[in-house]
Amino acid sequence: MLKSHGALAGSRALLYHRSVYSSAKRGLDILGSLAGLVVLAIAVVPVAIAIYLDNPGPIFFSQVRCGLGGKRFRLYKFRSMVVGAEALKHLVENESSGHIFKNANDPRITRVGRFLRSTSLDELPQFWNVLRGDMSLVGTRPPTPDEVQHYSDRHWQRLHVKPGMTGEWQVSGRSNVRDFEAIIDLDLRYQVVWTVWYDVLILLRTVRVLLRRSGSF
Questions:
Q1: Does some domain include residue 217?
Q2: Which of 86, 92, 93, 100 has the alpha carbon at shortest distance from 143?
Q3: pTM of the predicted model as reported, rounded to 2 decimal places
Q4: For residue 149, is it within any domain?
């Protein structure tokens, strides 16, 4: 299932999943990201106006995340929190267990931001990350460096695939799944059952989840 890449991430030898080498998966990513960028171009003006009127400041939010093999990249989203939210993170209780941060009533999220998150419109700029090759349409949630530094070897296996805009976690409860080990189970299951057609199935399931606006905050 895994192919050796002949590199090291810390003390761990990198073993990339076979999906990383799939031209069909990459083709799906390119087509999907191009379509998504068209939607982004249509949505950017009204979304930008709404964000600025609600909480003046930058329209886009960027953050360093860890992708394939732990390689760092800059992820882009529409800003859904108040300006300076990262500096206030220590004041918010983490309601998840393990190396992931979630709070259902995070006070840093703006009114417009809650709408953007519930509809996943905040993630539209990530289509640029997919086109660049930092991410895939389907994969694992891209963690932050401070999360990764606490990973065990089991946790590190989730970095054997590219991070995705959607994946097993998002279609299996999204933010309602707050146990990190349960998320790891879903990520590893994805690697076992993966095919390009399985990616298509997850994309279709994602559309259903988005229409129901279920499990996102």
A1: no
A2: 100
A3: 0.86
A4: yes
Size of the chain, expressed as the number of residues it contains: 217
Contact 175, 215 (CB under 8 A): yes
What is the predicted pLDDT for the residue at 79?
96
Number of domains in the chain: 1
pLDDT for res 10? 47
Residues 6+ apart with CB under 8 A from 30: 131
* Residue 163 structural domain: 2-212
Which one has a higher pLDDT value, 175 or 128?
A: 128
Amino acid identity at 42:
I
| Residue 186, both tokens | 């879903």
User: Which of 39, 44, 18, 49 is CA-nearest to residue 130?
Assistant: 39
Summarize pLDDT for 49-85 with one digit per residue, the tens.
Answer: 999 999 999 999 999 999 999 999 999 999 999 998 8
The answer to whether residue 151 sits within a structural domain is yes
In a domain, 98, yes or no: yes
The DSSP-derived string for the chain is: -EEEEEEEETTEEEEEEGGGG-HHHHHHHHHHHHHHHHHHHHHHHHHHHHHHHHS-S-SEEEEEEE-GGG-EEEEEEE--B-TTGGGGGGGS---SBSS----TT-TTB-HHHHHHHHHTGGGTTHHHHHHHTSSEEESB----HHHHTT--HHHHGGGGS-BEEE-HHHHTTGGG--BHHHHHHHHHHHHHH--HHHHHHHHHHHHHHHHHT-S--
